[in-house]
Amino acid sequence: MVLPDASGDVLSEMDVDSFRRLFPLRFFETHLVKSTRPDGRSLAEARETSSALGAVASADGSALVKIGSTRMLAAIKMEVMTPSKESPDEGCIAIDFHMPPICSPTVRPGRPAEAAPVVSKQLSDTILSCGMINLKELSLISGKAAWMAYLDIYCLDADGALFDAALLSAVAAFSHLQIPVVSMNDDGKVVVLSGDHGGKEPVNKGKRKLTLSSIPFSLTCLLHKNYILADPTAEEESVMETLVTVVLDSSGQLVSLYKPGGPVLAYTSAIQDCVALTRQRARELQMILDEVTSGMEVD
Amino acid sequence: MAGKGGATPSTYSPSPTTQKTKSLSFGNDEVLRPDDREWHQCRPAFFQIGVVAAAAGSAYADFGSTKVIVSVFGPRESKKAVMYSDIGRLNCTVSYTNFATPVRGQGSDHKEFSSMLHKALEGAIILETFPKTTVDVFALVLESGGSDLPVVISCASLALADAGIMMYDLVTSVSVSCLGKNLVLDPTLEEESHQDGSLILTCMPSRDEVTQLTITGEWSTPKINEGMKICTDACSKFSQIMKSCLKGFDSALEEEDSNVD
Amino acid sequence: MGEDSEWVTPGEVLGKASKFKAGRGAYVSPDNLTVYASLTGLRRILSPPPDSPDQRPTVEVTGHKAHGAIPEPGSIVIARVTKVMARMASADIMCLGTKSVREKFTGIIRLQDVRATEIDKVDMHMSFHPGDIVRAVVLSLGDARAYYLSTAKNELGVISAQSAAGATMVPISWTEMQCPLTGQIEQRKVAKVGG
Fold first, then answer.
1. Residues of C at the B interface, defined by Cβ within 8 angstroms
2. Where does the Exoribonuclease phosphorolytic domain start and stop, copy by copy (chain B) (predicted)?
3. CB–CB contacts below 8 A, A to B
């Protein structure tokens, strides 16, 4: 009886599709040794990225962002609140990240995706700590009324690097935000002023846009052996599990760095490489953002 | 201070909740609808398939300011502890984004629409072709601009076709609102809020079969007949757009088409 | 319209049942004896085999993506063993034929379906280990939880397995595989290869 090498034979009679499904790590490694990835990218290359503003008509600011197949829709709705006693001159931002069942076969109704609250928290921490938005600009009447900006980000198609896409969509939505012109009515409520002001004086004249300083940009990288893969797809994330997410602001300063465990223990040099890749990526993202926002001003 | 968490202060929307519109005088025949449509004219409709790469099939539909995405997964293993079944199962869920409605909502699942979607589609799917397994249809209303359920149903049928699920026919759906003495086709949210009655007709257009008919509010028999006629005509018009979308042609409803009445 | 006229979508009429048989992607409505499309794709007409008693041509719809394959009795599958118990092993079906499945289907191999002979001597733990890749045939749709799989044929069984040392083992007989690193021999229900 002749029994040749089983694995060799299995591989030769199996098509690429099945091999990829059964031996995903070996499949990826055959590409990595040639410094490429199955989708044709080089290891340090991010996927094609685009953004469009104003996708949600009923929101005060919105943006759609696409990184490869990953798509995020972010929308901001402005509501009015009474500011807290400790900070009477500040508004507030509430950030929520959602993964509805439409976005991935792994999400089912009634069973929220594990990743969603994690990304939600990371987004809140990043946006509120990077100093992009001065909460004082969200004040309306000191101690009486201030804006609460509800930012909801929906993942419409999940194919990896969710945090990066969500953060970019959040930043783009804030750059698109037009704060409604409001006045105080006789009941002490803040209401939107319609076309003619009806004799009322707006309380926030000329404060329709937020000043965005030090915008955060991020890049997620996958570490596997000595390889660093920028902007991973969902499949890459599921096969190789060590992720590092670096967030830098527009001036190149480090805002945050996440490495939520994973089997690969990163050397400092790997982290430095990730930061360098993020620096390069931040420049690309800044250009994409500048392009869409300049398009907006022309309108 | 933290931007979110348990201590989120109570907030309210500065937009007036009930829009006192410039006198919606729907009783008057001379007056056009707020968006200048004829009574029996649909909003510009646009369909696209294959919008969600992670799904087996998907579709996007946009009727004026109503925008929905539907993803189809499967046939796949039935989750939950369900009984063995010789035929396939259909599972439908409809939900809204928090920003879908004029006043920010909670974006929870819409139980009633989920069940209506299920019943509207069930009869059109050849369940025998995927025994024991489940096809999941998930709809997300990105923006609610009126006639949400009919748009979700038509969009879901396109997503099923895109996923290659065997069907007896496409399923198209459209609604009319009864406003005074007028019947208003494909009503907006504003028109729906003033309606005396609503009729939603869902059908399999090539087979001339109705899969679902929902009538609420005040209707006279002649009005019901008229409403069904208007809806049937609109459904066959939509089915043409949906077919060309599946065949990869331009799938936007031409203005000229929709003006014909 | 030219070639466009060949494209059909679900619900489109393909012909009368008196003239055509319904093939893949088509069905006959008993109400009006009409053949309709049930999928999107190209309409094709296949001539009947000359010796067929039914001389109607078959009309079918192909070309567009049909849904992913689902296991049916008789399908050859490739599955990854997830759990081995005394009387059965669970396995995730990853491929149907040579095509991978998008997600996975759960299958079980019961003790009596491991091999064709000496069924009473089968020990599940000497046949499969978690992580093994097996080739199997679908016996039946099984129960609510799983498809019933069988490896009771020479060409069915373990096609790839890792040794305790983590190396891909080499089959040395119908029941044994050997680790190339340590030389240690492990028991398996090995599939005959190249068959």
1. 4, 7, 9-13, 25, 27, 29, 36, 38-40, 64-68, 70, 72, 102-106, 141-144
2. 41-165, 169-230
3. 139
Q: How far is A42 from chain C (nearest CA, A)?
A: 26
C27–B56 CB contact, under 8 Å: no
Confidence class of residue B93 from pLDDT cuts 50, 70 and 90?
A: very high
Between A6-20, B32-46, B219-233, the lowest mean confidence (pLDDT) is in: A6-20
Cα gap B249→B244, rounded to integer Å: 5
What ipTM was predicted for this assembly?
A: 0.91
Q: Which residues pair with B138 in a beta bridge?
A: B71, B93
Domain C76-187: which CATH number of 3.40.50.1000, 3.30.70.920, 2.40.50.140, 3.10.20.30:
2.40.50.140
User: Are the beta carbons of C176 and C187 closer than 8 angstroms?
Assistant: yes
**Burial class of residue A200, CB neighbours in 10 A (0-12, 13-18, 19+):** middle
Please give the CATH topology (third level) of the domain spanning A43-298. Ribosomal Protein S5; domain 2 (3.30.230)
Spacing of C-alpha A124 from chain mean position: 11
Question: Chain B: nearest CA to A292, how far in angstroms?
Answer: 22
Q: Rounded CA gap, C21 and A55, in Å?
A: 48
Round the average pLDDT of chain A to a whole number and report it. Answer: 90
Express each pLDDT in A3-29 by its tens digit. Answer: 444 444 555 567 888 899 999 999 999
Confirm if A143 and A43 have CB atoms less than 8 A apart: no
* Letter string b/e over residues B113-149, b meaning 16 or more CB atoms within 10 A of that residue's CB: bbebbbbbbebbbbbebbbbbbbbbbbbbbbbbbbbb
Q: Tell me if A103 and B71 make a contact (CB, 8 A cut-off).
A: yes
Q: Give the C-alpha separation, B172 to B192, whole Å.
A: 20
Confidence of residue B81 (pLDDT cuts 50, 70, 90): low
In this structure, which CATH number among 2.40.10.220, 3.40.50.1370, 2.40.50.100, 3.30.565.10 belongs to the domain C2-62? 2.40.50.100
Question: Does B251 have pLDDT greater than 80?
Answer: no
Tell me: pLDDT of B158 over 70.
yes
A15 Cα to chain C: minimum distance (Å): 6
3-state SS of chain A is CCCCCHHHHHHHHCCHHHHHHHCHHHHHHHHHCCCECCCCCECCCCCCEEEEECCCCCCCEEEEEEECCEEEEEEEEEEEECCCCCCCCCCEEEEEEECCHHHCCCCECCECCCHHHHHHHHHHHHHHHCCCCCHHHHEEECCCEEEEEEEEEEEEECCCCHHHHHHHHHHHHHHHCCCCCEEECCCCCEEECCCCCCCCCCCCCCCCCCCCCCCEEEEEEEEECCEEEECCCHHHHHHCCEEEEEEEECCCCEEEEECCCCCCCCCHHHHHHHHHHHHHHHHHHHHHHHHHHHHHHHC
Which chains, if any, share at least 3 CB pairs under 8 A with chain B? A, C
Chain A: partners with 3+ C-beta pairs within 8 Å: B, C
Backbone angles phi, psi at C125, to 5 degrees: -70, -20
Say whether C11 and B205 touch across the interface (CB within 8 A): yes
